[in-house]
Amino acid sequence: MLRYASDNMPACADGKFLMDSHFAKESGLAPRQVFRNLPPSQLYELALAFEPGTHITSTGALATLSGEKMGRSPKDKRIVRDPETEKDLWWGPYSPNYVMDDRTFLTNRERAIDYLNTLDRIFVVDAFVNWDPASRLKIRVVTSRAYHALFMHNMLIRPTPEELESFGEPDFVIYNAGAFPANKYTNFMTSQTSIDLSLKHKEMVILGTMYAGEMKKGVFTLMHYLMPMQGKLSLHSGCNVGAAGDVTLFFGLSGTGKTTLSADPKRPLIGDDEHVWCDTGVFNIEGGCYAKCIGLKRETEPEIWNAIRFGTVLENVDYDPATRLVDYDSQRLTENTRASYPIEYISNAHIPCVGGHPKNVILLACDAFGVLPPVSRLTLEQAMYHFISGYTAKVAGTEVGVKEPTATFSACFGSAFLMLHPYKYATMLADKMSHHGTRAWLVNTGWTGGKYGVGKRISLQHTRAIIDAIHSGELERAAYVSTPIFGLQVPAQVTGVPAEILSPEKVWSKKNEFASTLNHLGHMFVNNFQCFSDGDAFVGVDMAARILTGGPSPLPEEVVAKTGFGAITAALAPTIPA
Ligand SMILES: Nc1ncnc2c1ncn2[C@@H]1O[C@H](COP(=O)(O)OP(=O)(O)OP(=O)(O)O)[C@@H](O)[C@H]1O
Ligand SMILES: O=C([O-])CC(=O)C(=O)O
Ligand SMILES: [Ca+2]
Ligand SMILES: [Mn+2]
What are the protein's UniProt keywords (predicted)? Predict the structure, then answer.
């Protein structure tokens, strides 16, 4: 491997910084060299010199490998149970908060520090989260890899030289020793990967995964505790703003379109993934975006395409070794290829990344069963219910030939990051929506014309036309029809979208099969909701009952098997005029 002569190495920008500080004494770090807040150019040089498999692509991005883990490991995430915070947090079989005790946290922390102390150099990134000045927090990342430092430089809010000078002690520290494994025989752990968050120590420790998304979502998890405690609602959502200042939030699970649809040439981007809705409006938590790049095309996603340039980290992508041209269609390493870039790389970014109270919230679901309408209007109860459900359906199946859709439910469209009970976030959302007159919409970015294998994924062009119609006010004035089982309100017409695809039952050739698929999905929603039966303890019996009214009313499967489409449409409400 290529090695630079040491006199070409970047200056150790802040060599004495750690050794002298209160932080060094507290942390136990005793590094040989510390590179603090190096600019991207120097991080490139160090990554290229010391991190195998790292190269510059034809457009100047830094393409690198995250190692064995190429996605998050939610089952390896642990939250330390402390007497001070345990009563607020959501525990139990359906909660993402798997318990760890303080002593094990400290054991893992020691392991991480010991590992970092064996290295020739470590990287520190000091930066901020939360664009709202009143909510701003200081984050410190300590890591073994230049790639991680560049990633967090992109994803956090970058300090000015003056802010860096006066940074002081951080509010939260991430020790990323992901290049070194955890000991799987440690209590509370089952694998060589461990991602541990302690609210008491205000620290996160990462062992056994170099996937950079763990750091970003670690900070997000912290915000899912700190923000609601201040009455501010943290949300896994994209966000953009129209010319009239009208803000839209896009909720959705991974791959449903938050990043893709919030990048809109007509609407400046506030952020693509993590936001907070507070008393003054919304703000982005982050200073950058983390876009999926599988199948990326210049024609359909020009904003993201153009953001992939010098300074951008490309994770686990395939490229031609000679030309360094990236093959965005290749899944050779993973389907979850990613690009991380500062938000200002999106040409119409709205900086500072803050906005007013949302006028619209759009719940995205990629329904591979093809039974949910491409767009429907939700009542407040339905908005809460569907927000808590967090539904999407993926086409799983690596088995040749068999590719049945599988339903996924993830509370609040991001269960892995929740700290409190989902009903807490949902009722905060409903409060804010009713206070500010916010409209909610369910948009299916998945299959149309039949389920996966029969129909096809709705085109981005059609989804964009639907989003445009929400923003122009066209759907506010439309006439609506109610759907069976789910009771969703579907507009009869949307400009730029073929009318026949708006009501899925019209495009399914086998009506009885449509009925049983839709009804079956209704049952899956109902079953999933049993995970939240402890919710009344958090929001009260009345509110818990009200949330349930937003859900589907599936019929017994035998009834639908016998009477088919007739059974499900019998009890339908008439058309609701504009
Ligand atoms: N009709 C459609 N609407 C939205 N996205 C679509 C559509 N058809 C195809 N796609 C593709 O689906 C993917 C949506 O992914 P996107 O990056 O927006 O996910 P995300 O919601 O931001 O997820 P994550 O939280 O993991 O970042 C993109 O690759 C996009 O090109
Ligand atoms: O966090 C990640 O690794 C990518 C992402 O945005 C998500 O999964 O929601
Ligand atoms: Ca995204
Ligand atoms: Mn995300």
Answer: ATP-binding, Cytoplasm, Decarboxylase, Gluconeogenesis, Lyase, Nucleotide-binding
Same domain, 334 and 362: no
Q: Is the CB of 445 under 6 A from ligand 1?
A: yes
Ligand 2 lined by 273 (C-beta under 6 Å): yes
Specify the pLDDT at position 7. 45
240 lies in some domain? yes
Task: Please check whether residues 326 and 418 belong to one and the same domain.
Answer: no
Residues with CB under 5 A from ligand 3 (ion): 258-259, 273
Query: What's the CA angle centered on 292, arms 529 and 174, to 5 degrees?
Result: 80
How much distance in Å is there from the Cα of 262 to the middle of ligand 4?
13
If you average pLDDT over residues 60-74, what whole number do you get? 97
Residue of 54, 194, 248, 259 marked catalytic = 259
**What is the predicted pLDDT for the residue at 2?**
43
Nearest ligand 1 atom to alpha carbon 256: 21
pLDDT band at 24 (very low <50, low <70, confident <90, very high): confident
Q: Which residues contact 519 (CB under 8 A, 6 or more apart)?
A: 485, 554, 555, 557, 560, 568
**Ligand 2 pocket mutation, candidates 148, 254, 294, 410, criterion most atoms within 8 A of CB:** 254
The CA–CA distances, whole Å, from 520 to 413, 514, 555, 556, 562 equal 21, 10, 9, 9, 14
Residues 555 and 472 in one domain: yes
Domain boundary among 294, 324, 345: 345
pLDDT of residue 130 exceeding 50, the answer is yes
Pairing state between β 77-80 and 98-100: parallel
Q: Judge if 340 and 376 occupy the same domain.
A: no
Which of 273, 415, 418 best tests ligand 2's pocket when mutated (most atoms within 8 Å of CB)? 273
**Choosing from 36, 145, 201, 217, which is the catalytic residue?**
217
Q: Is the CA virtual torsion 90, 97, 393, 327 positive or negative?
A: positive
What is the tens place of the pLDDT at every residue in 453-495? 888 899 999 999 999 999 999 999 999 999 999 999 999 999 9
Sheet holding 77-80, edge to edge: 34-36, 122-129, 137-143, 172-177, 203-207, 194-198, 77-80, 98-100
CA distance 317 to 303: 19
Integer Cα distance of 114 and 309 in angstroms: 36
The ligand 2 atom at the shortest distance from the C-alpha of residue 338 is: 4
Task: Confirm or reject: Cβ of 413 under 6 Å from ligand 2.
Answer: no
Asked, for residue 351, whether it belongs to a domain, the answer is no
- The answer on 280 and 170 residing in a single domain is yes
Ligand 4 midpoint to CA 150 (Å): 19
- Looking at the chain, how many residues does it have? 578
Residue 76, domain CATH: 3.40.449.10
Q: Which of these three, 294, 318, 345, is where a domain ends?
A: 345
Q: Are residues 313 and 369 in the same domain?
A: no
Give the Cα separation of 145 and 92 in Å (integer).
Answer: 35
What's the domain count of the chain? 2
Q: For residues 148 and 129, give the distance between their C-alpha atoms in angstroms, rounded to a whole number.
A: 17
Interval 338-366 mean pLDDT: 97
Ligand nearest 235 Cα, by number?
4
395 in ligand 1 pocket by Cβ < 6 Å? no
- ipTM for this prediction: 0.97
Judge whether 350 lies within some domain.
Answer: no
Q: 262 and 173 share a domain?
A: yes
259 CB under 6 A from ligand 1? yes
